[in-house]
Amino acid sequence: MKTLIAAALAATVLAAPALSFAQESQPLTRAQVRAELVQLEQAGYRPGVSSPYYPADMQAAQAKVAQQNATAEATAYGASTNGSTQAGSRVTPSKSVYFGQ
């Protein structure tokens, strides 16, 4: 009986690290990574050029892409452009819905 409990405990301990990876988000696809690289290149980042300012160049390009994406989301169809919502006036019917029945 003790060996059965010890075996179950050992299996649980060994399976715990494998189960912890199940909570991670889905990995990026090749197309998603390529699209991000294209966005960074359009923002001015050059991955093949050796630069002494590498981290700053990369962070500046990422900030520019994030700003462009935020602007694109804010001006999307149906989105409020000034941060507020607009609503029309309430229409009250002059007659009952059941009028004439």
TrEMBL record:
Chain spans, region Disordered: 72-101
Pfam families: DUF4148 (PF13663)
Keywords assigned by UniProt, alphabetized: Signal
Superkingdom: Bacteria
InterPro entries, per database record: DUF4148
Ranges of compositional bias, category Polar residues: 78-95
Range of residues in the leader sequence: 1-22
Coiled coil stretches, renumbered: none
Protein known as: Purine nucleoside phosphorylase
Species lineage: Bacteria, Pseudomonadati, Pseudomonadota, Betaproteobacteria, Burkholderiales
